[in-house]
Write a structure and sequence with these properties.
By secondary structure, this protein is an alpha+beta fold. Helices cover 52% and strands 16% of the residues.
Length: 665
Amino acid sequence: MPYLGALKVAIVKLNPLYLWRNPVLLTVEGGALWATYEALFTSAGGSFPLLVAALLWITVLLGTWAESLAEAQGKARAESLRRTRQETTAKKLVGDHRDYETVPASSLRKGDRVLVEAGDIIPADGTVLEGIATVDESAITGESAPVLKEPGTDVASSVTAGTQVVSDWLILQVDVNPGDSYLDKMIRLVEGATRKPTPNEQALQVLLLALTLIFAMVVLTLWPLARYLGAQLDPIYGIALYVCLIPTTIAALLSAVGIAGMNRVARYNVLALSGRAVEAAGDVDVLLLDKTGTITYGHRMAAQFIPVGNHGEMELIAAALRTSVPDETPEGRSIVALAREKGVLPGDEAPGTTFIPFAAETRMSGLDTPDGLRLRKGAADAVAAWVREQGGTIPPDLDAAVERVSRAGGTPLVVAQGEDILGVIYLKDTVKEGLKERFAELRKMGVKTVMCTGDNRLTAATIAKEVGVDEYLAEVTPEAKMDRIRQEQEAGHLVAMTGDGTNDAPALALADVGLAMQSGTQPAKEAANMVDLDSDPTKLLDVIAIGKQLLITRGALTTFSIANDVAKYFAILPALLVPAIPALEGLNIMHLHSPQSAILSAVLFNALIIPALIPMALRGVRYRPSSSQALLLRNIALYGGGGILLPFAGIKLLDILVAALGVAA
């Protein structure tokens, strides 16, 4: 039973050495100790002092129980993840051949090379060096379909510990040392071992401590006031008033809200490397998204060869094929496949031919042959500039071909051979379903969406209009992304970004919230403060919603906690002062039965409201996309108003019950 297990942990947490991190609950425990002493050794008030002392102990216990329940949820998730990380053996390669020795997976170190074959559990996070195989990642991502893994691309070459090879074989290079895998980090995270209070929580703790000190001084002044009035103030009454006035509710639930928020992110298979990242996601108001793989599916496939100038289709296909055979990207492979469909097969290149891989800075790839032939393939403006540098001219019909592809929402790749541009390859991509509605929700939240793409402006404009983003950046470089992030931050905005490539790493590190893909490169994952184990770039939209829900939940409970002190004030203060000043009977607006029943009812309500609000703290307040002003007004009306009205009704009902049971004079 998770509830009983959490209760046992809650009892252990009554230790003052643990409670010092929660000053409000620590002072409640101090009040409970004092009340217990008064009840056992100095009071002659029958069962009433013992009841008050017992209720104060229950209040502290329920406060630690709330945190324990949240931690129990995390531990259950951690246990589920731990089962995927089987202690297994690894085939560690020795030398340059496929000779291996069998070693425990826990002995692997960063840089080791291992062989995994069909049926093997992948022993560590790593990068595929050789081979091609399908991998079952359902234990981590929940997706049942096996994923193809092979070297040469960011997405397909990354593997995760705990997943299983379904077919064929792979040679991997281990990327992390034992205990540092993303699965290990998530296990530690959801168990709460590495969770630290966020700046927002720390600020709220300071506020709660300040309120506690203020109310402590207020209550302490009641003793000289009572003596001046000629009345005797029972310490039990003063302790009860103090505990009811300080913000015990939010103090008891504050940690649970933060832990539950982290758990909700973990349930989405997102590893938030800090609570600060989740919290920052709630304040994000600018979101940068890559087009390829985020807004579109990212599988850009060659659909058509469009020759320009005086060149024929076969001439264009032959040049495109030569630049694409060594190109391991999905686009390069699709060009080879389309050329085969057209009846053109690849041939062998002469020794000494140099392949020029695609680079974000040049936005081109190609090859140079020993006899001086130079082929390039890439973005239209980049290839055109390269041709001009070679002394060539631009065909008059190139712009029309590029515009035709761009207006169709595709990506044009221009192919050049030396001084001549041969034509355009039409790469077709597909926009993901439902994004337009999700971007509309973000707009309601006050989040501005900016699409970043290396495509030309026409393609970018077409896709941006189709999905409904607020702005787009075309022909963008890594430096341009960073410049835009800095501009937004200097204007006072919090910026989120998603990416998976090494060229995204600087921008991911600079953004307030950076979400990297588990299938992405190691530099990208190390630069980000969140990693998505499902490698779904649109997950950032869910993370933002969870962050906003966390902040709203904390704000709602804080508003409620402070507001319900008003009713408890009108319950206990008359009980304290009316015997000395009968004229203050007018403050007893709830017409409570007696001073003792008023005290018991208020203290009992103060204890019961904590477990009543635990489900809200763990589940979170329901979040509806709307403006910050609308959310603030709704919180004040619902939780501020409710925080005042509910205790009046609750304390009155408890007073009737206490009086009926005869447990108070």
